[in-house]
Amino acid sequence: MRYRLLGRTGLRVSEAFLGTMTFGEDWGWGAGEEECRAMFTAYAEAGGNVIDTANRYTEGSSERIVGALLGSDRDRFVLSTKYTLTMDGTDPNASGNHRKNLARSVEASLQRLGTDYIDLLWVHIWDPNTPIEETMRALDDLVRAGKVLYIGISDAPAWLISRAQTMAELRGWTPFAGLQLPYSLLKRDIERELLPMAANLDLSVAAWSPLAAGVLSGKFTRSGSEGPSRVDRAAVSERDLSIARTVDAVADELGVSSSQVALAWTRAHRPWIHPILGARKPAQLADNLAALDLELPDDTVARLDKASAIELGFPMDFILDTTNDFVYGPSGQRTEGRSGQY
């Protein structure tokens, strides 16, 4: 396992995070405690150090299981959890990104996790009803109090994140260090705005559902591999199945699993993307961990890119169009631009 710095911080985080949405059987499809222990041990032995959970995962069981697994080794790991989602649907203030819910959620998470601080706290999703100023100041207060060390945000628009970062910089508040976003060969829309923003603001990205809820594992495209799933086979589009078949073909050519190809692709262009490995069984996690040693050939990456290509849409398609000779003139073709701008 290799490590990278989280955003603009000095925190060392492993190239893949362990997702624990499957830890606990409260939702009817998760893993029991012994399976959770086996997966945690395998991840730790591989060198992984980021454990990602959330207050609402399996109705709090995930945090309790994670806390028990960390035990006396808690300080060796980067403990990551989230707030925003309600734990009491009858209380209008038991959800959202306002100060009251933040304070209550963090205290409850600390109790379930059995610790006195959280390494990385994520805003779980944008709450349009709470001003971002309130959220950023409240998060900064928790950092100053020592209950949280770093902060990130999940599932929010690029304009909001950019505004929050600018505000934090100008006011001396703690900025976000990373983003948590859905990213896979089936879901590349964050390439339009969010990934270019992350590159320019030095934000790490934790990619959730890199296997598209198992569709890219061969579950629906390989004979004899379909099993229990949160995804209805009838709801999977022909486009998605076509991409999954391309992944299967590449995997067969390379002698690896479909899951390994799909996971390796998420990091092929941007090493600062950290796939979140979420498995139900130790064998699945072991297969996923093997993807970290897989480097896809350039022509294979191009083949997967083409099979899953999306339109960037306006304004990027317009800006990147060859008609920009009209903007810069012939000399523009002889000007070496900044790398990594898009």
TrEMBL record:
Keywords: Oxidoreductase. InterPro entries: AKR_Detox_Biosynth, NAD(P)_OxRdtase_dom_sf, NADP_OxRdtase_dom. Signal peptide: none annotated. It comes from the Bacteria. CDD domains: AKR_AKR9A_9B. Residues 18-308 form the NADP-dependent oxidoreductase domain. Pfam families: Aldo_ket_red (PF00248). The keyword Cytoplasm does not apply. The keyword Disulfide bond does not apply. PANTHER family: NAD(P)-LINKED OXIDOREDUCTASE SUPERFAMILY PROTEIN, NADH-SPECIFIC METHYLGLYOXAL REDUCTASE-RELATED. This is Oxidoreductase. The lineage of its organism: Bacteria, Bacillati, Actinomycetota, Actinomycetes, Kitasatosporales.
